[in-house]
UniProtKB/TrEMBL annotation:
<dbReference type="GO" id="GO:0016874">
    <property type="term" value="F:ligase activity"/>
</dbReference>
<protein>
    <submittedName>
        <fullName>5-formyltetrahydrofolate cyclo-ligase</fullName>
    </submittedName>
</protein>
<dbReference type="InterPro" id="IPR002698">
    <property type="entry name" value="FTHF_cligase"/>
</dbReference>
<keyword id="KW-0436">Ligase</keyword>
<dbReference type="InterPro" id="IPR037171">
    <property type="entry name" value="NagB/RpiA_transferase-like"/>
</dbReference>
<dbReference type="Pfam" id="PF01812">
    <property type="entry name" value="5-FTHF_cyc-lig"/>
</dbReference>
<dbReference type="GO" id="GO:0005737">
    <property type="term" value="C:cytoplasm"/>
</dbReference>
<dbReference type="InterPro" id="IPR024185">
    <property type="entry name" value="FTHF_cligase-like_sf"/>
</dbReference>
Amino acid sequence: MTTTINANSHKSLIRNKVWSRLRAVALPDSRFHHDYSSFIADFEGSSAATDLLQSLPAYQNAHLIFIAPDNCLQELRYRSLTDGKKVIVTTYGIRRGFWILDPEQIHESQWQMASVLDGMENIGRHMTLADISELPTDIALMVTGTGAINLKGLRFGKGHGYFDLEWAMLYSIGKANQRTQTIAVVHECQVLDEELRGEVWDTGCDFVVTNDKVINVKDASKPSCGILWDKLEDGMLEDIEPLKELEAIKKRSRAG
């Protein structure tokens, strides 16, 4: 317990240190201004980071990509559609689950709006976990923003663990696996040379892509524990649609 408390305290100190730097380069959110505990910010240079990400074979070879609903990834969602890739994204806080943006089913004139969270639900298609499990290909790449990240690919997000949950849910249904590559898109000021022991559920990143460079991470952590139900924040099971779906699947499995 003491180790967990100390680790959480350390992460909190790191977040606060980075957030103070981020304010100089981050773009405010229309809902949350500069409250980085409520959203992952877009930043000056995110287009340059997207350029670098698009140059990676991990992106070029991927046909089905998960892209987190972070502000700094809106342009990537749009560019992925223009590159003919299918994009899976969650609603904010995962509350209404997963959606798929398929450029073969969405007219080109709507790609820009589909890449915006407010447009995604009107233009994309809602997907249950059962629907995602039936897709013909696995998810080759998962991309996220974050609050801060160290050189070993360990992220320090807002503190809710949404990307870890997204990984765990997709891993639980067999669509993400140890071959799935992970990328964090951040500003240079969010990259820290900090040592911190990760938790068993922490999903590390194979690449850290900034506005200036690409950092290759060796042996990034890829959890295989699935959902740790007793570690969920209060209210998550009630609020997050796919978690309720997974719980129902688990109960049916036990009954069978």
